[in-house]
Specification:
By secondary structure, the protein is α/β, with parallel strands linked by helices. It has helices at residues 13-21, 47-53, 66-82; strands spanning 2-5, 31-34, 91-93.
Length: 103
């Protein structure tokens, strides 16, 4: 799962952590794209969760702009390099919440 964060916080990080724990180890990989210019240290909600999952890819992405597609594609490329076993990538934003375990 690729989480696209555009601000300094992840209000639902605890729900995502619980969701990830409901899967078998290694079944779900959760990585974070943090918008360029937003430091992981400035993240208020979920700082440790974000820091542990942050990709090196960081694009100055804006909603409704091609830069958002660039951020998604570049992040997916890094995720696939780091986790070659991944067969599917889901996109979510920081305000999305997981509602079902993947099986």
């Amino acid at each position: 799962m690729l989480m696209m964060l555009h601000g300094a916080g992840w209000p639902n990080h605890e729900l995502w952590e619980q969701w990830q724990q409901q899967h078998e180890p290694g079944e779900v990989t959760l990585m974070v794209h943090l918008k360029a210019g937003v430091a992981a240290a400035s993240v208020k909600a979920g700082r440790e969760f974000v820091s542990a999952r942050k990709l090196a890819t960081s694009v100055e992405a804006s909603w409704g702009d091609i830069s958002l597609v660039e951020a998604q594609l570049d992040s997916m490329a890094e995720l696939l390099q780091r986790c070659p076993h991944v067969t599917h990538i889901g996109l979510a934003s920081g305000h999305d919440i997981p509602v079902q375990v993947l099986r």
